[in-house]
């Protein structure tokens, strides 16, 4: 297992329910360990994942497929 983190910026304001739904959808991706939003920074999604199982492109695409405008931070 080779762990890494990625931060995704989401342009839209998400409700608590929307954030929870997105976190749950991301958890279904093989290799995703911990998708999470931090209080006070609801536009930033941090995802811990196994780089041997998935990659940032898959994570970003899943976020966009949920209907959000999103970008990788620091890329």
Structure description:
This protein has about 80 residues and is an alpha+beta fold. The protein has one domain (about 5-70): Alpha-Beta Plaits (2-Layer Sandwich). Helices cover about 30% and strands about 35% of the residues. It contains two helices and four strands. It has helices at about 15-25, 55-65; strands spanning about 5-10, 30-40, 40-50, 70. Strands 2-3-1-4 form a four-stranded antiparallel sheet, covered by helices on one side. The protein is globular. The mean pLDDT is about 95.
Q: Could you report the average pLDDT, rounded to the nearest whole number?
A: 96
The total count of strands amounts to 4
Derived from helix and strand composition plus strand pairing, the structural class reads alpha+beta
CATH class categorisation: Alpha Beta
Unreliable runs, pLDDT <50, ≥5 residues? none
Q: From the alpha carbons, calculate the radius of gyration and give it in angstroms.
A: 11 Å
Overall 3D shape: globular
Strand content: 35-45%
How widely separated are the two ends? 23 Å
What's the CATH topology name?
Alpha-Beta Plaits
Please give the share of residues in helix.
25-40%
Report strand order across the widest sheet: 2-3-1-4
Pattern of helices and strands: EHEEHE
């Amino acid at each position: 297992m080779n762990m890494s983190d990625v931060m995704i910026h989401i342009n839209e304001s998400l409700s608590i329910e929307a954030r929870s739904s997105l976190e749950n959808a991301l958890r279904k991706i093989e290799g995703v360990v911990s998708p999470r939003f931090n209080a006070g920074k609801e536009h930033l999604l941090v995802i811990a994942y196994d780089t041997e199982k998935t990659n940032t492109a898959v994570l970003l695409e899943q976020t966009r497929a949920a209907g959000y405008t999103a970008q990788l931070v620091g890329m």
